[in-house]
Amino acid sequence: MNIGIIGCGLIGNKRALSIDARDNIVAVSDIDISKAKTLASKIGCSYFKNYKDLISDNTIDIIIISTPNFMIKEIALNALRNKKHVISEKPLGKNSKESKIIQDCAIKNKRILYTGFNHRFHPSIIKAKKIIDKNTIGDIIHVHGHYGHGGRPGMETEWRSKKTLSGGGELLDQGVHLIDLAILFQGFPKKVYGLTSNLAWDIEVEDSSSFILYHQENKHSLFSVGWIYWKNKFEVSIYGELGYLKITGLGGSYGNEKLTLGLRNLKGGKPTTKTFYFNNKDQSWKREWKFFKKMIQNKTFTENGLQANLVVDAIYKSNRNKSEIKL
After folding, report:
1. CA 144 to CA 113: how far, in whole Å?
2. How many whole angstroms separate alpha carbon 58 and alpha carbon 260?
3. What dihedral do alpha carbons 153, 157, 160, 163 form, nearest 10°?
4. 3 forms bridges with which residues in the sheet?
5. Residue 217 confidence (pLDDT) above 90
6. Is 5 helix (H, G, I), strand (E, B) or coil?
7. Would you say 190 and 196 are in contact if contact means Cβ atoms under 8 Å apart?
8. Where are the beta strands (DSSP E) in 24-70?
9. Number of alpha helices (DSSP H) and beta strands (DSSP E) in the chain
C-alpha cells in the first residue's frame, strides 16, 4: 500500500519506522519543513510543507495523521473526502463532536478510519487479554490503573497546555489510553463519574484527573492520570473472581514491561503468582500497523476514537456538574 504521513515529529517518526517493508511511504508533510525534510531523507521519499499537496497524490492509499489535536479534524476530512483510508494519532480531534464529524465522513466515503491506541498492542496487554479470554481469572469485577508523568520544564508554554489547541489536558492526552483499555477489557461504559484538577501546573487545561467508569452490572474501572507523578508511571490491575492481573511498565522510561498473574486461594491465604517479563523493545507500533492493514483488507469498521472521546467529554461534564453522567 502507498502511504502519506502528515506530522513528522516523534509519533510521525515512530509510525514511519513501523511500516511493513512491502508498503511504500510516498511522501511526508509537516508545517515545519525541516522536520519533513529530515524524515523524508531518512526513509527516501518526497516531502511537502502543505499537507494538501500530499493528499492530492492519487497514488496514495493511506494517510497517517500524527499532528497536534487541533489539526486532526481538517486533515482527516480532507483525506477521507479524497478517498484515503486514515489512521490518526489519538485523540480523534479535540472532542467527541469533532470525532463524530470525522466518523460520519469516513462512512459517507466508504473508507476505514482508525484511531491509534498502540497500548493495546503491548505484549503485556495482549497476554492479559488472552488470559482473560481463557477465563483464567474468572469474570472481571474491577479494573484499577494509574498513568502519567511529571511534566517537563516549559510544558506550560506548549500546545498541549492551550485549550484551543489541545481541547483538554492529561485526560485527553494519556487518559484516553486507559479509557480504551477499559473498553477492551469490560466494554463501553454505561455511565461515568469524574474529577479534573490543576494540582501542580498553572495552565488552561487539567494536569490530573480521577474517574470511574461503570460497565455492565455496575462492574467498574477506577483510574487516575496526571502530569503530577514526577516520573513516568504506568500500572493497570485487573481483578477477576478467581484471580488478578497486574501490568506495570511500558518499556523505556516507564520501566520494564511485565505482567503478574495471581490465582486466588479459595481456602484463604496468599495467591499463587507467576510473572511474565517482556523485551524492552517497543513493537506495539508495528503490531498496530499490521492490525490496521487487516482492517482495510477485511473492511472492518470501528468507532474507537469516537468512543474514547465520548467518555472523555462525559468526564468533563461530570466534573462540571458534580454528578454521574450516563452514556
Report:
1. 29
2. 48
3. 140
4. 25, 62
5. no
6. strand
7. no
8. 24-29, 46-48, 62-65
9. 11, 15
Q: How far apart are the C-alpha atoms of 213 and 190, rounded to whole Å?
A: 8
Sign of CA dihedral 195, 201, 205, 208: negative
For the chain, state the CA radius of gyration: 20
**Taking 90 as the threshold, does the pLDDT of residue 7 lie above it?**
yes
- Digit-coded pLDDT (tens) for 187-212: 999 999 999 999 999 999 999 999 99
**Looking at residue 166, what is its pLDDT?**
97
State the DSSP code for 256. -
Q: Which pTM does this prediction carry?
A: 0.96
Within 10 angstroms of residue 229's Cβ, the number of other Cβ atoms is: 17
Q: What is residue 150's predicted lDDT score, i.e. its pLDDT?
A: 93
pLDDT one-digit tens code per residue, 154-186: 999 999 999 999 999 999 999 999 999 999 999
C-alpha cell read off for 238 = 485487573
CB burial of 13-45 (b: ≥16 within 10 Å; e: otherwise) equals bbbbebbeeeebbbbbbbeeeebbeebbeeeeb
With 90 as the cut, is the pLDDT of residue 281 above it?
no
- Dihedral of alpha carbons 90, 205, 248, 238, sign: negative
Q: Can you read off the three cell numbers belonging to residue 153? A: 520544564
Burial profile 230-264: b = 16 or more Cβ within 10 angstroms, e = fewer:
eeebbebbbbbeebbbbbbbbbeebbebebbbbbb
Q: Which of 211, 217, 148, 209 is nearest to 186 (CA)?
A: 217
Strands 24-29, 46-48: pairing is parallel
* Grid cell in block for residue 138: 474468572
Identify the helix (H) or strand (E) that includes residue 147.
strand 140-148
pLDDT at 244: 98
Residue whose cell numbers read 493528499: 55
Number of neighbours of residue 69 by Cβ within 10 angstroms:
22
Taking only the tens place, the pLDDT of each residue in 37-63 is 999 999 999 999 999 999 999 999 999
